From TrEMBL:
It comes from Pieris brassicae. This is Ubiquitin carboxyl-terminal hydrolase 39. Keywords: Cell cycle, Cell division, Hydrolase, Isopeptide bond, Metal-binding, mRNA processing, mRNA splicing, Nucleus, Phosphoprotein, Spliceosome, Ubl conjugation, Ubl conjugation pathway, Zinc, Zinc-finger. Belongs to the peptidase C19 family. PROSITE patterns: USP_3, ZF_UBP. The keyword Cell division applies. Pfam families: UCH, zf-UBP. GO terms for molecular function: cysteine-type deubiquitinase activity; zinc ion binding.
Length: 485
């Protein structure tokens, strides 16, 4: 029982040590620190949770720049102080204030040679730098000598979070979303109710994007550890990094959660999420008479119950249904993997094709008509069907063009006229599933706009790939960008 107040007193003491020190003390020593050459940039990793490695507290945490570990406080008897005396490590960085200190002497170190460490911990982008991202073809060199392209870096797989990684990699290529989150001031003034933790999701996503696009990173990969912890916390453990989930479920939840955390409403321009991905469709629904009804019940088809109902519906992605796989083998007793054209799948949304939907009690006939296309169109190709016993995967290959995909072909003439021919999209992100439904893995293909080079990303593995190879894969989720010209 006595441990609680004692610990509290200790924290207060550490914080008071932080505040009581005069800023101008030891000015001469601040500039000439003899231990700067002991800093080891190879071990510095700011991707993980900022908590003390001994007390596990988040308050007043310092990173040791010699061994990379985190410790609390810098006053006498604190964990950082003890570490500096016991191990002879002297240079520390406050992870909150971004100030450098030398312990145990406890003076501030001011040296411009440390700015690169500060930038890795908290990359900052100006408007001009963000504009240059779409034209920059310069590679970045990590401390170990490996080369990488900013924005095209691997994400660490902690255990089973590849389903998150592929979504985060593709969203990082959506330009308006990226540009918005790279500048923290865009969302720094969003007011949330007291005690609301959902804004943590926004901050962590911003931090992750800034690290992915950091041209001066120390290493050629990023660990999404803090981002995923915010996901686990805010999704109430629905999504975890120790258990595989479906990327479309995660993406749908993630986009809606970001929209809500940014105080988004039902208005199309209320958040950057809706501005980028929100489209609109009209759904025509007609109830079907039950197949086992007698003749008397079938006669009354003109009643109000069987009239066609029209509803307006917004969407963040379109669900495309694959044709069922053939049950029988061909004449050579081989199962040929069927192929289908992307435009065949999109015909579901032309306002004329009807599809039957069965519920437990009733059957409906539905038609879908797109009334407004978003700047970025997400397609979800439904590969998995669940029945009572198991999940089944449809291996049908979808043939799709990578460039100049005209979505105007599925619009009605009235809606198409409104766009004046600007309905051409090109693919910027493609997610695919390998293996069986239970034990499969996910990969992503992303387009690097400045070089027009495609890259395949599977966690930490990043390799360039020909666009012709992308079309041969079992596409699962695709993101298309509306062409400006």
């Amino acid at each position: 029982m006595s441990e609680g107040p004692q610990k509290k007193r200790k924290n207060d003491e550490e914080n008071s040590t932080e505040l009581s020190e005069p800023p101008s003390k030891n000015t001469k020593m601040q500039i000439q620190c003899p231990y700067l050459d002991t800093i080891n940039r190879h071990v510095l990793d700011f991707d993980f949770e900022k908590l003390c490695s001994v007390s596990l507290t988040r308050i007043n945490v310092y990173a040791c720049l010699v061994c990379g570990k985190y410790f609390q406080g810098r006053g006498t008897n604190t964990h950082a102080y003890t570490h500096s005396v016991a191990d002879g490590h002297h240079v520390f960085l406050n992870l909150n204030t971004l100030k450098f200190y030398c312990l145990p002497d406890n003076y501030e170190v001011i040296d411009s040679s440390l700015n690169d460490i500060k930038y890795v911990l908290n990359p900052i982008f100006t408007m001009e730098q963000i504009k240059q991202l779409d034209y920059n073809t310069k590679m970045s060199r990590a401390i170990d000598g490996s080369m990488s392209m900013p924005g095209i870096v691997g994400l660490n797989n902690i255990k089973a979070n590849d389903y998150c990684n592929v979504i985060l990699q593709c969203l990082a290529q959506v330009r308006p979303l990226r540009n918005y989150f790279l500048r923290e001031e865009n969302y720094a003034n969003v007011k949330r109710p007291p005690g609301d933790s959902s804004f943590l999701l926004v901050q962590r996503f911003g931090e992750l994007l800034r690290k992915l696009w950091n041209p001066r990173a120390f290493k050629a990969h990023v660990s999404p550890h803090e981002m995923l912890q915010a996901v686990v916390l805010w999704s109430k453990k629905r999504f975890q990094f120790i258990k595989q989930s479906d990327p479309i479920d995660f993406m749908s939840w993630f986009l809606n959660s970001l929209h809500m955390a940014l105080n988004g409403t039902k208005k199309p321009d209320s958040s950057i999420i809706y501005k980028s991905f929100l489209g609109h469709m009209r759904i025509y629904t007609r109830k079907l008479p039950p197949p086992d009804a007698d003749d008397a019940a079938k006669v009354d088809l003109n009643s109000e119950e069987y009239n066609e109902m029209i509803t307006e519906s917004p969407f963040l992605y379109l669900t495309c249904d694959l044709p069922p796989t053939p049950l029988f083998t061909d004449e050579f007793r081989e199962n040929i993997i069927p192929q289908v054209n992307l435009y065949q799948l999109l015909s579901k949304f032309n306002g004329q094709t009807s599809k039957e939907y069965k519920t437990y009690k009733e059957n409906f006939l539905k038609r879908f008509e797109i009334t407004q296309l978003p700047p970025y169109l997400i397609l979800y190709i439904k590969r998995f069907t669940k029945n009572t016993f198991f999940v089944e995967k449809n291996p049908t290959v979808v043939n799709f063009p990578v460039k100049n995909v005209d979505f105007g072909d599925i619009l009605t003439p009235e809606v198409k006229a409104k766009y004046k021919g600007k309905t051409t999209y090109e693919l910027v992100g493609n997610i695919l599933h390998d293996g069986t439904p239970e034990k499969g893995t996910y990969r992503a293909h992303v387009l690097h706009k400045p070089t027009q080079q495609w890259y395949e990303m599977q966690d930490l593995h990043v390799t360039s790939i020909l666009p012709q190879m992308i079309t041969l894969t079992e596409a699962y989720i695709q993101i298309y960008e509306l062409k400006d010209d």
